[in-house]
# Entry
Amino acid sequence: MYLTREEVLVRAGRAAQYEDETAAYFDILQRQAGFLRATLLNSLGVPARYTRLVQWENRDLGKSFDRSAALVAFTREHPADETYAASRPVEAYENVHRILGSSAPVATYLIDEIVGPGPTTLQEFEESRGAVYQLRKQFGPGFAASLLSRFLGGANRYLIFGSFASDGDDRRTGETPEIVGYWAAHPSASKLVTSAIRDPQALVISANEEPI
# Structure
């Protein structure tokens, strides 16, 4: 699956307008071929920063929407410079793991991670995170969702989306015997990340019942 990440800083007094416009944008997305899911997040630490995550069946269908008459009409009706400014270029990712739990998504976060070089390192990273996500689903209290996506521009970059029912559930999940035991049995897998930046988020809008 193909995921795009759009991050903006909303101008003062325009947050409600931006959220309403995003809801209308998501309505348009739901009528497009190949569209899967869309989520709007708001950073807790930087309240003006919003992130749109949009998932497509593949890159070709996502790029097709970028050139569509529907998007041209929407951007003409809702000019960006009135409500927000981009805080980073739109980025594209490939989904590696997407695991959903049964809890409502309340405590949500994004993590930007950089993994050490080498193809075997990347493989070990992706396999270990997939295994831990499955353990979260089985044994984690309040687990809602985990998504691991690989940056298509290379540089060993990954984007992680995580969500739990409450702020303490992430920590309690990490302390379960099953997950502690996994890391103990795979010590090298816990040392693959060279940089990690975690940004707690509020989930504002989801175009689907699923959080991501």
Strands lie at 2-10, 35-43, 49-56, 84-86, 91-100, 107-115, 143-151, 157-164, 193-206. The mean pLDDT is 95. The chain has two domains: 2-92, 95-201. The chain is about 30% helix and 35% strand.
